[in-house]
Write a structure and sequence with these properties.
single chain; alpha+beta; 4-stranded mixed beta sheet; 4-stranded antiparallel beta sheet; 30% helix; flat
């Protein structure tokens, strides 16, 4: 996947939140403020201030392009993003508020796109990743899934080697099954044996289904009967953290409880941090003593929708924990020689494949309402 883009740099945490209503409230408070108070709430950086002139984000046709200090405009409709590993939140899609929004990613963001995030643990999401998750590799170089972000010639070569049509999504699934961190980044061996390729695809498709969590119209994954988590008592008070009883497999969320919760879901970590605990901390951050300004604005009661999201997250982590031993034991067997990729012209990929494609299908509005020159 030659084309890679650095992660979005928000510059200010308040532009993202676990629920869209909070973002609309924050926008209203900021837009209604003036002078020094607006600067304090905005939290200016070297890249973005209320007086900065920037273009509209691609695909956000209703976005304002006047300086925020002159005309904030209506609140843009929040969009779903991946904020942390496995934590889907919401973002205000306004480039005036984001230090480095990566417009090239917004241009190829659509219902066909998938994003691979190359971090300590490879992530795949249908939502735009934001923050410091790692380098982002879109599956498609153009909207509509028209062109794969793969080394030219790779798909025909693999189809010939493995005896059947190979798609870009097949390659993504193989990466999930066989890719491993290495000294030069995430390394993906290609097998010489078609049987190992098919075995890796079968495992990779299961991993992809779990990671997408029902996105793109798919069926949300479920744990086997008898292991599916349910709300045993509703969350009525704000949790100060999560509590887990391994004997009863019960997760305590404030005065609410969820069970059964697999031990693997509770123990699932990314970079030494429990995913469930980090997820909960993100939803109670606005109530912490250090929260201030717009970041301190949030729900005054635990939203019922968050409990549904928690059940889905427990399911995802439980399934991934169950697949972890199989993935760890998977071996690609004898490898396809690198020389075969070189002689076929697949390696090294051409320089143009490492750059964004030209995907403009309409004029983009630049600062102050002028058309952008690209």
């Amino acid at each position: 996947m030659p084309w890679a883009v650095g992660g979005l740099r928000l510059g200010r945490d308040w532009v993202a939140a676990p629920d869209p209503a909070t973002l609309r409230t924050r926008w209203a408070v900021l837009a209604g403020s003036e002078g020094a108070e607006r600067d304090r709430l905005f939290r200016p950086s070297r890249s973005r201030t209320p007086t900065a002139s920037v273009a509209a984000l691609p695909g956000q046709r209703s976005a304002a392009t006047a300086r925020f200090a002159d005309a904030p405009g209506p609140c843009p409709e929040p969009v779903r993003v991946l904020r942390e590993p496995f934590d889907e939140q919401w973002l205000l899609p306004d480039q005036r508020l984001i230090d480095s929004a990566r417009p090239e990613l917004w241009r190829v963001r659509d219902e066909h796109q998938l994003f691979l995030v190359e971090g300590p643990e490879v992530l795949v999401t249908a939502h735009l990743p934001v923050g410091r998750l790692g380098r982002i590799r879109p599956l498609h170089r153009r909207p509509g899934g028209a062109e794969p972000n793969l080394a030219p010639g790779l798909l025909p070569l693999l189809g010939e080697r493995y005896g059947g049509r190979v798609t870009q999504e097949d390659v993504l699934c193989w990466i999930l099954a066989a890719g491993r961190p290495g000294p030069r980044g995430h390394e993906v061996p290609l097998p010489a044996d078609p049987g190992r390729w098919r075995a890796g695809l079968e495992l990779g498709h299961r991993l992809l289904t779990v990671r997408l969590r029902g996105a793109r119209g798919g069926e949300p994954p479920r744990l086997p009967g008898g292991h599916r988590p349910y709300v045993r008592s509703a969350v009525g008070s704000w949790p100060r953290g999560l509590a887990y009883d391994a004997e009863t497999r019960t997760l305590g969320v404030g005065d609410g409880t969820v069970s059964p919760v697999p031990a693997g879901a509770w123990e699932y970590e990314v970079q030494g941090v429990r995913v469930l605990e980090e997820w909960c901390a993100a939803r109670t951050a606005h109530r912490e003593p250090g929260a201030e300004g717009l970041a301190a604005l949030g729900p005054d009661r635990w939203p019922q929708g968050w409990t549904s999201e928690l059940l889905a997250l427990v399911t995802t982590l439980g399934l991934l924990a169950g697949l972890a031993p199989e993935r760890a034991a998977f071996e690609p067997g004898p490898l396809l020689p690198a020389e075969a990729l070189r002689t076929s012209g697949v390696l090294p990929p051409p320089a143009w494949s490492r750059r964004p494609a030209s995907v403009l299908d309409h004029q983009e509005e630049g600062p102050g309402g002028q058309f952008a020159l690209l």
